[in-house]
Every structure is written in C-alpha cells, then in structure tokens.
Write a structure and sequence with these properties.
The complex is a heterodimer of chains A (172) and B (188).
Chain A lengths: L10 H12 L4 E4 L2 H14 L3 E6 L4 H4 L2 H12 L3 E6 L10 H8 L4 E3 L8 E5 L3 E7 L4 E5 L3 H16 L2 E2 L6
Parallel strand pairs in A: 2-3, 3-4
Antiparallel strand pairs in A: 1-7, 2-5, 4-8, 5-6, 6-7
Helix pairs in contact in A: 1-2, 2-4, 4-5
Chain B lengths: L1 H39 L3 H52 L2 E2 L1 H45 L2 H11 L1 H25 L4
Helix pairs in contact in B: 1-2, 1-5, 2-3, 3-4, 3-5
Classes of the chains: A alpha+beta (172), B mainly alpha (188).
Chain lengths: 172, 188
C-alpha cells in the first residue's frame, strides 16, 4: 500500500478542489481509501444538479466516513437528484448509515443483478466523476471535467438500471 | 504568473521589513529617551519621571516588538505557505498529463523544500538586522558618552541608515525567494 500520509495536510483535497473550481480536464489518481473518501466527499460537495452512484454495497470503509456522510446529507438537503445502483444489499444491512441517509430523503436505491462488473463509480452533473477500477484497494481516478467519459458511465449505469430491483432491506 | 510572484513576494517582504524596522526604531527611541533623561540630570524631577515613563514604555515596546515580530513571522510563513502551495498546485494541475499519487508526493516535497529555503533565506537577513542593530547601538552608546546633544545628533544622522539597510536586504530576500520559486517551478 502506498504511503498517502503527505507531510502537508489537506494537499490532496486542495488539489482536487482546485481542479473542480478550474474545470480541469486532467485526471487525479487515488491509491488509497483515504483519498477515495476525499474525492467522493469533494464531488458531492461540488454537485449542483444530479448524482449517479454505482457501487457494490455502499461499503463502510468509504461511505461510513463522517465527511462523506455529511456531504451526502448536504447534497440531499440541497434537493439534488440522486440515482443509486448497488450490486448487492448495503453492507451491514439496516445499519448502513449512508443507506439510511439516502432512504431518509426518499432516494430510490436499486440493486442490479449484474454481479460481474468489478468497478464503482460516481458521476456528478454529467461532467465530473470518480471511477474505481480496483474495488479491493479502492484505487481509481477522478476527473473534474470530462463530459464524454461521464456520459459513457451514465450510459453504462442506465443499461444496468433497466433490470434493477429495489433493495430489500428496510431502514429502522 | 512569474510577474505576480515577483510583485507579491517583494511587496510582502518589504512591508514586513518596513514594519519591523520602524517598530525596532521606535523601541530604540523610547529606550534612548529614558536613558538620556536618567543620565543627563537636566530638569531633575520632571525629566527623571519622564525617563521613568520612557523606560516603562521601552519595556512594553520591547515586549510588544518581540511578540509582534514572532506573530508577523508566523503569519508571513503561513501566507507564504498557502501562496506557494496554491501556485504549485496550479502548476502541477496544468503541466501533468495525469496527476498520480507520485506527482502529489513530489508536489509535497517541492513545497517543503521551498519552505525550508524560505525560512533559511529569512534567517540570513534577520541575523544581518541583528548585526546592524548592535553596530547602531554601539554608535548611539558612544554618542551618549559625550552627552545628550551629541547623542541626539548622532542618532539623527544614523537614523536613515538602518532603514535603508532593511529595504535593501528585504529586496535581496525577495529576490532569493523568487529564485527558489523558479527552481521549484523549473522555470529556469
């Protein structure tokens, strides 16, 4: 595992913030769960219209993070359109906090029967995204402004969503 | 970007140097006021009490100066840190095709290196100011030995020199900082 403890705190976040602010078309890679959380957090904070989330099961290692949960709650409170597609039931079932937050804002969380896809992604406002191609290590890359790739991911999302069913577990 | 760097660094440097120079000169002034009153014996009670007030003011000035200088140093370092960080982030985001974690580590190392150089470049003129201070104090003390009028005369004559020295060293420091920034940004 790469050493991601930079001596300058917040540098990675500052970099992605700058990329979002300036509409950079460059890709920013992440090798760790910590940086995955930062990217998702910043993407949710930057969202203005809609958010697409495709992931295996809203894993605790990323989605249970306090900053991510806060950003998720704030984005939902801003009235953004959320579309969430999972590959299995949320990790921890009823105890999954991200799932509980989504349900509390009546987001329709669906489950696809496609178990072969080995990646997670989040697409924001049809232009910025984070694509995770190694779901175990949580490594992947993000881009603040790539409408073509965002459109491709959205098309993939829509295809998988066609056969999706509602997630079965209920939130207490 | 290069032009902005030059203007910002030199301006910021000069303002800090100016402020420090004038605070130090004001402290010296109050110190001398008290010192002269005590030793001249002119006006007995009135001037002695004025000297007491001046001495008290000198102590408080010395304290304030030390606190203020430390505060300014911290503030300036933090401003510089943020400024350098932003500039290097912009530069990396523009020049790298894909920003990997390795690029981020390099960026981090660049910022740290820049900060180290900056602190080192700041310390050199600080020692120089100290030396000037000692030399000026020796001159003023010499003036005091020949009585108050001579002392005042020497003080007035010497006044512009430390200020000028501060300005020049401030400019040099600003220049050194730009050189370091350019090294980091690979502009040279």
């Amino acid at each position: 595992m790469a050493n991601t403890n930079f001596t300058i705190p917040g540098l990675y976040r500052d970099m992605f913030r700058f990329m979002l602010k300036s509409g950079s078309t460059k890709r920013l890679c992440n090798d760790s769960k910590n940086h995955a959380r930062i990217l998702i957090d910043e993407l949710l904070r930057s969202a203005k219209r809609n958010v697409l989330i495709f992931c295996r099961h809203l894993g605790h290692d990323v989605w249970d993070d306090a900053n991510v949960l806060f950003a998720l709650r704030e984005a939902l409170a801003r009235g953004l359109k959320f579309s969430v597609l999972l590959q299995s039931d949320p990790e921890g079932g009823n105890n999954n906090r991200a799932f509980a937050v989504l349900k509390s804002y009546n987001v329709d969380v669906k489950k696809t029967n496609d178990a072969t896809t080995r990646k997670n992604f989040i697409v924001v406002d049809g232009k910025s995204y984070r694509l995770e191609d190694n779901v175990e290590e949580r490594s992947g890359c993000a881009c603040a402004n790539d409408p073509a790739e965002a459109e491709r991911l959205k098309a993939e999302f829509d295809t998988m969503a066609q056969t999706a069913i509602a997630v079965s577990c209920e939130v207490r | 970007m290069r032009g902005t760097l030059i203007i910002m660094s030199v301006t910021a440097q000069l303002w800090m140097v100016r402020l420090a120079a004038w605070v130090i000169l004001a402290a010296i002034w109050f110190f001398l006021g008290g010192f002269c009153c005590h030793f001249s014996g002119v006006g007995e009670g009135g001037l002695i009490s004025a000297g007491g007030v001046s001495s008290f003011a000198e102590i408080s000035f010395a304290l304030n100066t030390s606190i203020a200088l430390r505060w300014f140093k911290d503030q300036f370092l933090s401003i510089f840190d943020r400024f350098a960080k932003n500039q290097l982030i912009k530069y990396t985001a523009k020049t790298e095709d894909e920003i990997s974690e390795d690029s981020m580590r390099r960026l981090c190392a660049d910022i740290e290196m820049l900060k180290e150089h900056f602190i080192r470049d700041m310390e050199k003129p600080a020692r120089f100011y100290g030396l000037i201070g000692i030399v000026v104090s020796v001159f003023i003390a010499g003036g005091l030995l020949f009585g108050m009028p001579t002392c005042l005369k020497s003080y007035v004559i010497l006044l512009p020199f430390p200020a000028l020295a501060y300005y020049i060293t401030g400019l040099l420091t600003g220049g050194l900082m730009i050189v370091r920034l350019e090294d980091c940004l690979h502009l040279r």
